[in-house]
TrEMBL record:
This is Extracellular solute-binding protein. Coiled coil: none annotated. PANTHER family: ARABINOSE-BINDING PROTEIN-RELATED (PTHR43649), BLR3389 PROTEIN (PTHR43649:SF14). It holds the Pfam family SBP_bac_1. InterPro entries: Bact_solute-bd_prot1 (IPR050490), SBP (IPR006059). The lineage of its organism: Bacteria, Bacillati, Actinomycetota, Actinomycetes, Kitasatosporales. It comes from Streptomyces glaucescens.
Length: 443
């Protein structure tokens, strides 16, 4: 898959390999863990585990800066970065966290990926530390900082780029049929009807992968009932699936499917193998709801389309819904968390502040990422596509809430079971009410 394995690259695999599948081995083997405070912590050196992809150069530069800084000298500690290959990251972290070689600081995905460690008392609750530190408190977009929370408490500091889900559209198809991107659900349905009459499938959808279908439910539930609906589920209350917004979202999904919004063969179309992006780029489908990496995917596969005809817009508001139309769903970013047994807490916290620095944000932009820092807006002119970068940043900056992808928030075991129910719903093998009942029963 080449560069597609990069969490720093803007591609599919960053969403999937590092998304729902990232927590596969994190939920077992923790009860007997006995962390002793970090590998290589002697002599004031703290170990930081990081996902070893192309983007790790940004973190290495941050470590190099920190180790030479007055902050490191004052705290009496330095950082040693340990790069772990992507496919090995989750199992190696899980094993390390149950051994004397546990990292002092480590890269993660927030939400479900750290829940076992939080429940085992292995992470520092950073809530009060952030609240009482001006750099950390004001250094990041609030919606992103909160997105990695568990039960309203901060256990991580943002340290990579944002990956919101965006409504992409084919500019040439829209121009041909005299359409503009929908800002309301009724407008979206009207566009669907016009496109179908013209013989164009409204939306590309890689249904065989399932996770692209999840994006629809995430936005619909948020627009209908607000972020509180899923937050209740994420916090462990399965009865939250019974919220009216979930049933209504499932009904809207079925209406879209039955109305042909995704065509008739979407369950056999894959995003992974490039099927859905090709349908979209070739004008066979007019729109595509996908993560921000869609731009990079199209640039790699259909560069002319990406440069000339790829458009983007926020997900539309739903009339009568109580969710704020500015809310965003997707993968907010990745986070640094700190081991509760860290040998030099002051040095670890001082290092976290490096992620809020202008130099760090500049390095992320140079790598093609859109930083989640509050200082990033002025740097986006240097992005590969400044217009696209500014759109993403403004969308997330203005979002009252940024909901983490449900599968990541729930963790691998529950996420996989949820995927099964979503697949049944979209494929017509389950009704909206049966979908709700099945999800309430997930354990």
């Amino acid at each position: 898959m080449g560069s597609h394995t990069s969490i720093g690259g803007r591609s599919f695999s960053r969403r999937w390999v590092l998304g729902a599948g990232a927590t596969t081995l994190l939920t077992t083997g923790l009860s007997a863990c006995g962390s002793s405070g970090g590998s290589g912590s002697g002599g004031g050196t703290l170990t930081a585990f990081v996902y070893g992809d192309d983007a790790v150069k940004v973190q290495q530069a941050a470590v190099d800066r920190f180790n030479k800084s007055a902050a490191a000298k004052k705290a009496g500690g330095t950082i040693k970065l340990e790069r772990i290959p992507g496919s090995d990251y989750s199992p190696k972290l899980r094993t390390a966290m149950g051994s004397p070689g546990a990292p002092d600081v480590f890269f993660n995905w927030g939400g479900g990926s750290i829940k076992p460690y939080v429940e085992a008392g292995k992470l520092i609750d950073l809530t009060d530390i952030i609240e009482n530190d001006e750099v950390l408190k004001k250094g990041f977009l609030p919606s992103v900082l909160a997105a990695g929370d568990l039960k309203g408490r901060h256990y991580g500091v943002p340290m990579r780029g944002m990956q919101p889900v965006i409504l992409f559209y084919n500019k040439s198809v829209f121009a041909e049929h005299k359409l503009t991107p929908p800002t309301t659900w009724d407008q979206l349905l009207d566009i669907n009807a016009k496109l179908k009459r013209a013989g164009v499938t409204p939306f590309a959808l890689g249904g065989s992968d399932i996770w692209p279908e999840l994006m629809w439910l995430e936005y619909l539930v948020d627009r209908l009932g607000g972020p509180e609906v899923f937050r209740r589920i994420q916090d462990g209350d399965a009865e939250g699936w019974g919220d009216p917004a979930v049933l209504k979202a499932a009904e809207m999904v079925r209406d879209l499917v039955d109305d042909g919004a995704f065509g008739s063969k979407f369950t056999s179309v894959s995003y992974v193998n490039g099927g859905a992006p090709a349908v979209f780029a070739k004008g066979k489908a007019a729109m595509h709801l996908m993560g921000s990496w869609e731009y990079s995917t199209q640039l790699g596969k259909f560069p002319d389309f990406a440069k000339k005809d790829l458009g983007w817009a926020p997900f539309p508001k739903i009339e009568g819904g109580t969710g704020d139309a500015r809310n965003v769903v997707g993968n907010p970013t990745n986070y640094w968390s700190v081991n509760a047994r860290v040998s030099n807490k002051d040095a670890a916290i001082a290092f976290l502040k490096e992620s809020a620095s202008r130099e760090y944000a500049r390095d992320l932009v140079a790598n093609g990422d859109v930083p989640t820092t509050s200082n990033a807006a002025l740097l986006l002119g240097d992005a590969p596509n400044p217009e696209y970068a500014r759109f993403q940043y403004q969308m997330v900056e203005e979002a009252p809430a940024f909901t983490l992808s449900w599968d990541q928030a729930l963790g691998d075991e529950l996420g996989t079971k949820m995927h099964t129910e979503i697949s049944k719903l979209f494929a017509g093998k389950s009704s909206p009410s049966r979908f709700v009942a099945a999800c309430k029963g997930l354990k």
